[in-house]
Amino acid sequence: MTMPRRRPVHLGPRSIATLALVSTVGVIAFGWPFLAPPTSALNAHAQDAPWLFAGLLVLLVAVVTATISESGLGAKAVATLGVLAATGAALRPIGAGTAGIEPMFFLMVLSGRVLGPGFGFVLGSVTMFASALLTGGVGPWMPFQMLAMGWFTMGAGLLPGGDRLRGRAELALLAAYGFVAAFAYGTAMNMAGWPFMGALASGVSFDPEAAVPANLARFAAYCVATSLGWDLGRAVVTVLLTLTLGPAVLKALRRATRRAAFETAVTFEAPRKAPEHR
Fold this sequence. Notes:
By secondary structure, this protein is an all-alpha fold. It has helices spanning 13-35, 49-70, 75-91, 104-115, 117-135, 142-157, 167-193, 212-226, 228-260. It starts with 12 loop residues before the first helix and ends in an 18-residue tail after the last helix.
């Protein structure tokens, strides 16, 4: 008999609504070049829009983190969040600048799988924030990275079969998700930086006066020319680490979750009085 999973964060209606709102704004922030018509006033500020959305995303990620925390991020879950976020942040610089060798992503997949979508979103966002501070990668792209990594980790927690799927079948599912999601993360980050290109890459940059199909073709060419190799490296590394280290890491995470008993509230007993001697 398979025991139901214990989750450190339970998503209530308020948390789900906040996540949906942030995700909706995030989709607009990433995809506005394809959503705004050529005559839109937003296209006239193509170089300013990413900065506006970056500031907005900072506030929204803070709101959703606070909402989820209020709904049940207890002391044990905070401790787990700190350990995993610090580990992920430490893993990111290992392959910095080397063809997409980013072991951080496989840890996010496995953590989201075990600890659930709510914890996964918070973990992904916090880990990316911590790693940006660690590597000096702070800029207008950081809020986009935080949101994209939150989605990446949350998606692993939404995969089916969490209570019954184990062994090779689960590893194959997580590896397949990691492969696809690694490309999705890279594509999302390309969308965040693409409008900045301007005259630096006139043949593949965003053209505010062009129609959506023309800009889609430009964006596809931009992805192939700039990040396809990096995204492929990230995807392959994620798959390899998931298949090789996944069983041990999943076992450790599940054991830690059971021992932490996230659903049990932390209580403190009053000190006992010493017996009186007469």
